[in-house]
Amino acid sequence: xxxxxxxxxxxxxxxxxxxxxxxxxxxxxxxxxxxxxxxxxxxxxxxxxxxxxxxxxxxxxxxxxxxxxxxxxxxxxxxxxxxxxxxxxxxxxxxxxxxxxxxxxxxxxxxxxxxxxxxxxxxxxxxxxxxxxxxxxxxxxxxxxxxxxxxxxxxxxxxxxxxxxxxx
Length: 168
Description:
The protein contains two helices and ten strands; from the N terminus they run αβββββαβββββ. The protein has helices at residues 13-25, 102-117, and strands at 35-43, 48-53, 61-67, 70-76, 92-94, 126-132, 136-140, 143-145, 150-155, 161-166. Strands 1, 2, 3, 4, 5, 6 and 7 form a seven-stranded antiparallel sheet that branches. The protein is globular. The mean pLDDT is 92.
């Protein structure tokens, strides 16, 4: 029998790693060099959404969705709709360079900061990664707005909290 699932994926390193492993194990992707385009969205309810550059057809991008413990390939992504905002080469990163368990580190840091600035802190239930130019990984949210003050957070690519600063 499968182990009971925690209620919030963004804090569950085992489920995050299992989701990454399951993506690589998809029959159409297995053994191929994979690149994520644009970023990754992870939701507390167990969903993950990302766009993956087709490893077999250069220039094609497809959406992939994780829910109920399984991945499914979604719709093609029309890169021309994004205009000049994103570039396929600059705004993509190798899956090997992305640690899905970093989501839990970011979520934990966000939760800890919420507890310092909010009288009634809401539970973190959404973390996302933006792939910026030159494949720089940027974790979000990177701000916490409390009852009387706001703070900004800086994370490294591994999701480790580097800096907390008051927002003016």
